[in-house]
Amino acid sequence: MANGSVLDLSTETDGDTTVVIPSGRIDGSTASPFQEALLKLIEEGKGSLVVDFENIEYISSAGLRVLLLAAKQLQAGGRKIVLCAMRDHIAEVFKISGFSEILAIHPTRQDAINAG
Amino acid sequence: MKAALPRLSLDLEPELSSALKELAAAVARFGEANGLSDSQVHNLSLALDELATNTISYGFADVDRQELRVELRIEDDEIVAQLHDTGIPFNPFEEAAVPDIHATIDDRPIGGLGVFLTKTLFPNPDYERTDGFNRITLRAPVKGDS
């Protein structure tokens, strides 16, 4: 497992849906660039935002905070955020925090795009 | 199993990015040396990250002496993790607000989850303030690889 506060991010689009694929760790030191990137994508996009967790190895409450902020922004514009492909220990963090009750989480990217 | 690294002590820089990096690496090393499960290493890493992040981001504001030490050890089949910091006196387990984890997206306030996650993963944490240090102790039964 790579350690260190590095977060890379790539994006794709599928119709009106924006798919963002971050990789690395989302913690207190990477949450801020992650937030900037998501808010910019929300501003530029029209449809749903899919966040693919396939390459995310770790998320702390600083990352959950960013996702909630993004969800609020999207919801205010009648849009939604859809998450997918989480590792078990990350899914557990979403469950404990109650985020799995308020955010849609799907097994695969395609499921998430279909739900978006 | 004979522990190759039964005890680990780490002084962290009061700079978030390097501190979190060092902390994650140290917890991974400690977990591997002691045969802890991936899930247990993750939980330990997350709880210590949350506490250290709070100390560096808030506890050290307006404090000249900025020391943060993490100690990990295995004791009687228990993982014992301690954080000692010279931040402002603060017991996160008493003073941090408890989030409503059933609120809707609109109603849910931003933030306030770190201490909650820590407490959920490590029930009954200890806090004391002695000699100018906040001292937090987390404990959990050792869970191995199998």
Q: How would you describe what is shown here?
A:
Chain A has 116 residues and is an alpha/beta fold. Chain A has a single domain (7-115), classed as 2-Layer Sandwich (Transcription Regulator spoIIAA), CATH 3.30.750. Chain A is built from five helices and six strands. Chain A has helices spanning 31-44, 61-76, 88-96, 99-102, 109-115, and strands at residues 7-14, 17-26, 49-52, 55-59, 81-84, 104-106. In chain A, strands 1, 2, 3, 4, 5 and 6 form a six-stranded mixed beta sheet that branches. In chain A, a hairpin with a 2-residue loop joins strand 1 (7-14) and strand 2. The longest helix of chain A is centred in the middle third of the chain and has 16 residues, at 61-76. Chain A is globular. The model of chain A has no long low-confidence stretch (mean pLDDT 93). Chain B has a single domain, classed as Heat Shock Protein 90 (2-Layer Sandwich), CATH 3.30.565.10. A five-stranded antiparallel beta sheet of chain B has the order 1-2-3-5-4, with helices on one face. Chain A binds chain B through residues 1, 3-5, 25, 27-29, 58, 60-62, 64-65, 68-69, 71-72, 75, 88-89, 92-93, 96-98, 101-103, and chain B through 16-17, 20-21, 24-25, 28, 38-39, 42-43, 45-46, 49-50, 53, 56-57, 99, 101-106, 108, 110-111, 113-114, 116-117, 120-121.
